[in-house]
Queue: 3 jobs
Job 1
Amino acid sequence: MADVTVLGAGAAGLAVAARLKARGMDCVVLERGPGVATSWRGRYDRLRLHTIRSLSGLPGFPIPREYGRWVRRDDLVRYLEAYAERFGIDVRTGTTVAGVKPGADGWSLRLDDGSERSARTLVVATGYLHTPVVPQWPGLQSWPGTLIHSAEYRNAEPFRGRDVLVVGPGNSGAEIATDLAEGGAASVRLAIRTPPHIVRRETAGWPAQMNGLLLGRLPERLFNPMAAAMARVEMPDLRRYGIDRPAEGLKTRLRTHRYVPVQDVGIVRDVVAGRVRPVAAVRGFTATSVELADGTSVQPDVVIAATGYGTGLRDLFEDTSLFDETGVPLVHGGAPARPGLFFVGYDVTLGGMLRQVALESRRVARAIPG
């Protein structure tokens, strides 16, 4: 039995394993996919990190300079592969854990092939972008068009000449809408329920990530109006194009909904130019149309649901009291949730996901007895 078993060979799992190995601890990483960075491999082709290279590397091995300031998806995968090789991390691919419960000596893992495995210490690093979520809209079964989750989207080529409705104005939805507009879709609409906070990825070379790091500790009463004022200076008024200004402050929304702002990599330009048309939120489907919350309807060929992910943890663990109603661990990021049980990579901050998991991996590695 290894000293520590880690679930998930993404950035968080690999970082924890590397820090544990540096302490001389035996560690095995179980990964459901065919290789490390499975979730990153499945993201859309044009994806780049929204955080700068120098603040996105994992402990002990920075991201190579030749990958540029805004690292591409494929380069990040190569980096994580190199990271696992550099530290000699024992990754067991094609290993899916179907259930977790307390065991006689730590934790008992039930694998999907019916076998069982024991873990004295278990670190869960499967991530909060684990299980695609598609709302159960009324009438969906009667609609004859094509519906996919954004997790299935790779590029615009299959949608060339087609009428597409993207649902959800988060980072994935906004970037996919821009990709479709640039890639030859006949029509692109973006369904918006809650107006997004939009920031420029960088201004005069200054990345938005640095604003999050420098100002993120301010209380909401100071941060919210400051962020709103910055947005009014940076961004055109999009109300005339169908996107209202957010009613809830950015930091309040981060706290209440784990929300991060949309980084503009083309969506503002495309909305202003009419290449992407904002519409109201989806209310339901009929046999001929998609009904919107403002009483109008549209007739797209394809709906792409950029409607988020769940952690999948409530279905994995016998003890569901470990999680809130959204499936996020109540205790994570360093402290044990139960004796011998840690969760890492579930915190959402304005300073960047990869930077955060690098910090958390050090805390977890220090917290596990040698």
Job 2
Amino acid sequence: MSHVPVLEIGGTHVTASVVDTTAAGAAPLAVVRRPVRAHAPADDLLDAIAAVGAQVEVPAGAHWGVAIPGPFDYDTGIGRFRGIGKFESLHGVDVGAGLLVRLPGTPRRISFVNDADAFALGEYRAGAAAGRSRVLCITLGTGVGSSFLRDGRPVVDGPDVPPGGRAHRLTAHGLPLEEVVSRRAIRRFYADAAGLPGDGPLPDVHDIAASARAGEAPARQTVQHCFGALGQALAPWCERFRPDLMVVGGSMAGSWDLVGPAVREGFDAWGAGVAPPTVTALRPVDAPLIGAAHWALRDGTAALPAPT
């Protein structure tokens, strides 16, 4: 099985592709991306997801790889979405069974993988993390995604990683991390720093970044506060896990010229020499697709061999 059909399910979109896992760079052969209504009823959501999958050409009886955010039971394919503002209708639903009867070609199996892990595996197979033994991959978008990889396999338990291997479970300034570092938290902090009314329209993160580059004090204060907290939260775990590299993806990685120094200051506040070398993703768009394909290929049962 070298041509693997995959789905990447996000909070606002679904992407379908077929990935040639034997090609140099593990290139997706076709990519289709469509919006999805995260608050739709369960059957409507599953229909919409499968409809995107139906737009790529797949062989009968294929083994699909599906990247999907948590909370989700990746072994059983059952949604655990509750109180997170998206996919609530899939809570307790057997998503795997629902997709098996909806996807084209009567698939024989679906392997689910956390979307942050899929991103990390894609960067390991064909991106910035290739050839690295220990990697911390972070995605900065609506929230904070993370994956701690050891020899191409996500580490989700043990003393060297946060609970579940997930940085969003950490705290910063006495709050859950995503109450300090997330799209909503950054906008809220900026509004307070700039004295903006809480009930009015707020600038988005890219606008705040532009203002910070222009030297606006509230914007620069916001970047320093929020992303410095991220560095402080990650520092003790990097001291334990000792990653060879940290790879950063997600929409906010486009502002790494601002975000990076703030994160490093947060690391340095914990202790000198803790911050790992850091780069932005080489495959920011298709890394989750590549990672989901390789997860299906190996079915999550063995470490992926180092890329050649």
Job 3
Amino acid sequence: MSADTPDPDRPRPAAVPPFAGPPAQATPPPGHAPDPTAPIAPAGPAGPVAPSASETPDPPYPTAWYGGPPPTWPAAPRRPRIVRAVAAALGLVVLGVPLGLLWAAVAPDTPVVKTAAGAIYGEPQPEQPIAADGWFSLLGLGFGLLAAALLWFVLRRARGPVGLVAAVLGGLGAALVAWQVGRRVGLADYERLLATAPEGRAFGKPADLRAGGVEWVLGVLPVPYGNVLLPAFGAAVAYTLLAGWSRWPSLHPEPELPGGPGVSWGSAVRPTPPAEPEPPAPGAAGPPRG
């Protein structure tokens, strides 16, 4: 027999089918756990395994939420923000009425004596006027701090320059109202005694400010000075500190990004890359070679 003429009695080898990739692992029937000792089929030429749904987070925005510019949220319209800020500032001014009543209640009256030239101090160096200024300063500063915190949480969509201006102007207006309301408590009785009391009569003069008030420039422009500026100063400081410690760069409440609370757009969790396919177990049958 020659090489070109095969032996007819010799069995021919079976035809090798084309390689169609690694066999799929059989799914175990319900109630049976998979065999941990079974060999793992090697990865075929189809490419790396795609990450599962748990490894690839679903971004809430159409654009990438990492490695690019931060997502933007629509800002509130300007006119409603200004209207709310003006209403909040007027509300602070109205709160100056109870502030003035509180100041008149805690500030002591100054003892005076009626003379032919008018009322004079009943003591050589009275401390009551200094105490009245001190009480007004403390109450005004505390009022400014609380007013800034109140406006920070009430005007959530107007945070920023608009909220700061509302807090400062509201605190200044409340201080002026508190000063005028507090100094008029008992003022009518004082003026009546000053006009009708006999000489040598001792009585009390209501609290008033000596370290603050309003000075008229050129007779037309009122300029506040002294401790009436403390509520506005306290409001400005407190509001600035709240803005500096805000968790949102825009100062406005923003929706949470993937990764949990407190995670900014720049530090978001990146998706876990797919793991490399494990090597085949020893003894596993590999694909036939051509």
